[in-house]
Every structure is written in C-alpha cells, then in structure tokens.
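Students often ask why we bother encoding 3D structure as a string. The short answer is that it lets us treat folding as translation between two languages. Here is a chain of 201 residues written in the first language.
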Amino acid sequence: MKYAILSTLLFGLLISGCRPTNKVNRINPSETTDLSGRWNDTDARMVSEEMISDALTKPWLNQHNRQHQQSPVVIVGNVRNESMEHIDTEVITKEMERAFVNSGSVNVVASSDERQDIRQERLEQQEFASLETMKEMAQELGADFMLIGNISSVVDETPDRRTLAVFYTVNLELVNVETNQKVWIGNKKIKKLIERRNYRG
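And here it is in the second language, the structure alphabet:
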C-alpha cells in the first residue's frame, strides 16, 4: 500500500514537472510593446490621445457653446474596422467618451446598444418601483452630434514576404444630428515596417 501511494506521488511530481511554465512580468500600460507588428494597445493609445486633444481644441466646441449657451451632447455611432486585422474600435471610442465626460465640456449619452438595457430598466420601474423613485419616460437627453468613423489599412511587402510595411489610417468625425453637418474631422496615420527575420514563405 505504501509503495502504491509513493508511486502515485512520484508520478504526480513527474507530470507537474513536465508542464511548461510561463514567465509573466507586469509592465507599465503606457510602455510600447510591439511583438507581432499588428495593431496593438500602443496604436490605440496613440490614436485616442491625439483624437481627444484635437477634438477638444477645435472651433466646433466653442462655436456650439456660444450659439446654444450649453455644452454639446455627443453619442457614439458606428466606427467601422475596414482593415485586414481584428481591431476593437471601442477601445478608442471609450477613451474619447471618458475624456469628453471628464473634461466637463462635452456631455455624452449612451449608445444605441447601451441604452436598450437602460430603457428596459426604466420600463420595469413604471411597474415595480415606488412613485418617489420611479424615473419618468421620454426624458432622455437628445444628442447634438454623433461620432462616426473608420479604420483602414494598406499592406505592402517584398516578394519574399520577409519585409512588409503596414499603413493605418484612422478617421473620426462629429456630425450634427439635425443638419448632417460635419463639424470636426480627426485623422491619425500610423506606419509600421516589419522585418520577419525567421520567416519561411
């Protein structure tokens, strides 16, 4: 019996010793990391920072404030990924929403996807919440502008496919919901040169 237990323990140790272990290092989220050459968090951060700075300093904001004596209301619409990679455009739009709200200069309302849950909650409150806490229907804040845009990419590579250049273009626009007028257009370009040293075509 003792030999059986000992054998089981030794077998377990052998199995655990054969498992590959991963080394994990925590680094500063703002540190640049380019492992594959594909679109990554550094690219998204660069785009977000530049778009936020540009959007909050261009004339559309002051013009709206002077004309309406109140901060504009923005809603996020469709930002299309037209590149050949998987790019989560929400990473950029969420950063812009955060900056808009925290600036105190631009109001942001929930997107069409987000507000479905909120509307359902408000509808259920009509039946289940007390009169003192029930939220009224048809009191939503209408958006003045919609944020839309796209991300596209162009790839060029050598015949042996060992070296390639990837050119990304990010376009974001604020469009007046009532008039369809484009009041701000932001553009950010990123170009990467990738060398595949161990590539075998």
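Translate back mentally: Helices lie at 2-18, 41-57, 59-68, 90-103, 112-128. Keep this in mind for the problem set.
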